[in-house]
## 1
Amino acid sequence: MDLTVVAYVVYLVVSIGLTIWVARTLSRNGRIFLGDVLHGNEKLADAVNHLLVVGFYLVNLGFVALYLSGDDNITDTRGVFEALSTKLGVVLLVLGVLHLGNVWVLSKMRRRGIMEREQRPPVPPQGFLGGQDQGRDSWAAPAAGA
């Protein structure tokens, strides 16, 4: 068997395995963040979580497929390891960037949700201040000729 094909097979198996592992980790732990952000709406949290995981798979597996081909013809075992280290290193970097991006977005959403929950007016409204003329606002300028 051609060593280039062996390198491709190993690359695909490891890259797809890593992608699945990271996606499951994001799904399992991201659901907690989404549940908090969405105020305990579990169905919506599950739906958003599933959509994020599908997007993660599409982006990363698309990158893995695009990065599969190589210009070099691998002739020895050393070449297999060199090609794999380069390809897998780039895939790991992309996975890391996507993972950090997901964590950043989830934490930003969570922070926004916490801030929205904690915002309360300092004093509840107790009524309206009425001017002498109830027909128009007391702060408005008088009409011309009035």
Note: The mean pLDDT is 80.
## 2
Amino acid sequence: MDAPPFLAARLDRGAAPFAVGDVIALILLLTVGTLNHQTVEFLTANPLYLAGVFAPFLIGWVVVAPLVGAYSAGAVETAKSSVPLVIRSWIPAAVVGLALRAFVFRGGAEVTFAAVMLVLGSVALGAWRALYFRFR
């Protein structure tokens, strides 16, 4: 019997709610961060600005998270397995997002910003998954 393809072992249908929740958590984090630096009036006048903020990190997440196992069978079992998986997935995804932000999209990847994204992204993703298991 052949081993399953690489991605097949890292994608579980039961993890679909996590995919939606992870993206929502990242969008909320990035929106709150943006609102700390821009006004609502600015964002209203520049409707594509937030898309440029979201894009590098969401691209990094979509590319890296399945490869690391954020949506594997282990991610749907318990918070004890899911939270570390999402954090282990976020760290390289954030690095990809920071690189995209620095070289492709507007914005930089200063060390302080990178540290904030790594820490707060880990907290946001880990907290939402922990809450999911607590209240499901």
Note: Residues 79-103 form the longest helix (25 residues).
## 3
Amino acid sequence: MSQSPAAADPVAEFALAGDLTRPVRLTVPDLLVWPQHEADVSFECATSGIQHHRFTGPLLHDVLSAAGPVFDPARRKDRLRFLIAVSGADGHHALLSWAEIDPDFGRAPVLLAATIDGTALDRAGAQLVLPQDRCGARHISGINAIRVDGGYVSWA
């Protein structure tokens, strides 16, 4: 009995977890539901020099908003205490603030890339792409988890 190609090479998925009303597991094909954005990105990689790629995918803000972050609706600025931790299958991690990606504040066009240079990332996994970063250190390949955390409390 032979295996189908899908069984032999499963589609990568990642978890959206944390302070969300609708935590979920997503695949690259799932990301195609959201409006797609393109970004031509050049960044400096410590191991392989300058990289130039074209990425497409939804905005991180759109995907996380659909998962229902548990902001206090009575406090307009409550969302500013939320952090976003992204981890990749290779052990790399990046941390962003909600304010960076929120259209009312930083409005950074951070992507959850579904393609790189026209090639689908179904099996390799989605990539975190920060087009505004000169250094590629926050670029995460093969995302396996994104955690939204609103647990920050004031020092006062």
Note: Helices lie at 5-8, 28-31, 60-66, 98-101.
